[in-house]
Amino acid sequence: MLMPVCGNKTLGGSMKKLIIITLACLLAFMFLISCKGKVKEVPPPPQAKEQPKIEKVEEAPAVEEPMLSEEEIFMRKSLEQINKEQPLAMIHFDYDKYFIREDAKPVLETDATWLKKFAMVKVLIEGHCDERGTEEYNLALGERRARSTFDYLSSLGISPERMKTISYGKSQPLAVGHDETSWQQNRRAQFTIIEK
Amino acid sequence: MKSRAKKIVFFGILFLGATWTFFSQQEVVITIKEGMAAIPLALPDFTTRSSSPALKEAAAEIRQVLGNDLKYTRIFQLLPEAHYSYIRPLNPEKIFFKDWESIQAQILFAGEVSESEGGAVLFEGKLFDVKSERFIVGKRYQSEKKLLRLVAHKMADEIMKVYGERPLFNSKIAFISNRDGNDELYMMDYDGANQTRITFNKVTDYMPAWSPDSKKIVYTSYRKGNADLYLLSLYEGNISAIATQGTNFSASFSPDGKKLAFCSTMDGPAEIYVANADGTNIKRLTFNKAIDTAPTWSPTSREIAFTSDRGGSPQIYIMDAEGSNVRRVSFGGDYHDAPAWSPTGDRIAYVSRVDQIFDIYVLNLRTNQITKLTESNARNESPCWSPDGRHIAFSSNLSGTIQIYAVDYDGANLRCLTSKGDNKLPDWSN
Q1: Positions in chain B short of pLDDT 50
Q2: The domain A77-195 is classified under which CATH number: 2.40.30.10, 3.10.129.10, 3.30.43.10, 3.30.1330.60?
Q3: Is B250 within 8 Å of A139 when comparing Cβ atoms?
Q4: Kind of pairing, strands B283-284 and B271-276?
Q5: Closest CA to B50 of B110, B114, B121, B111
Q6: What ipTM was reported for this prediction?
Q7: Do A135 and B382 touch (CB under 8 A)?
């Protein structure tokens, strides 16, 4: 800072005032400058890049399959496929008996619901026996079991025209053991879809 | 006057004596009575005209089959082989009957085998009564080499006719076998030989029954997705459907060949129906809510025995061929089924279940006595009679698999006839 110096003369009173004011202004000025903070350095503007033009070819959106109703899905399957899925659960019987057991009723009720849903279906009810009866009697007993099942389903509202019965006696066992577990499995009425 | 009467009497006796000797020289008829001791029969090796080994083999085969047939009847007892070496060999031109008497033979069978120019086998058999040195019966047969068993069976039948017995050795047994995959119809000779397949399909064929003339078999088949009754003509090879409504099974021809009884659920619960032998004019015989099944005819064709659970459990009943006069004949047990009326008319074989074990029993209708025929811890089922009523064929699982057995009517001589696969539901032809 250059200080005005007037020769060797001692400073007069007004001169002193002037110097003090100047110093004060200088100090204030300096003070103000330092409070302002750093001055940002502004970077030069970026150079715009030249992009080559590529058109992206994307697959055309797949035609959305209309939501098939359950009936339509069902109608597309073959009888063999439907029967493989075993939509109708089988029921079991007591030894030498053909009445519908209490534990079989809910199963038949579920089966009836399915049959009502797919109302175009015709079903074959097969009656089977375990190996412990004679051939003749078992063929008749199997028929009785198929018929009891037929009657019960009929009472649940399934039209008799939709159902057929057949007996295989003991000629088609599911389980080949010679104990009660196998025998119980074989004493059954099972279903086969024959028309849809 | 007195001398004239004497003359009349004398000539009368002379006349009677003449007619007596005349008649006594007619055919030899020997009757068999039950309890009679078996007749010792000498059946030495057959003589062969040439020494060709093929011919000797043929002779040996005929001899073995004939021997088995005659043993089967229990009328004859074959002499042990060793005895033949005690005496000089048989010379068919000149038979030394004393030789045969010395080794205790009562009857002698002399057989001779030779070959014709065409390569056919010629067999001549003669039966002699040793003591009286009398010729009883003889036959000559000519056949191809593959029919030797048939020749032996025919010879055996001829011998049985002499004894007033019904020919048996050409009868066949129809049965069901799953040896080729599924249950199919088969047939075999009465002794288990020549097992032949009859139906060729992939469905269950079931419960065969012979027609009395042995030309047709009625059976149940699931070929159309239902248990239908079919009639198969064996020699023409055609099949006709008889009953196709409901489940139809357990068919049985009447012995006079005119009617066919069977079980059907065509009107609801299992009932018994009767039709003409060709399946026309089906009439219902039982009318109830019970299971009525397994009809079998009496030899007079006037009655039918069947199974019914109308009393609460399956039992054997008899009714007239029109369906009336029903009466129960099985008692003492809670499960009787599969009745089979013997050709002699006095017995019914059936199955009874006691504590999970099925055994064959024979009920004598005259004495009401019951004989237990099988004694194994097994399932014995489906009895059927031989045409002479002396043997029963049935199925049993006593070996582990189900096989067909034959047994004599008194339970003796149990024989296994089949071995491949499971074999069941036999029916014996006439």
Answers
A1: 18-27
A2: 3.30.1330.60
A3: yes
A4: antiparallel
A5: B114
A6: 0.80
A7: yes
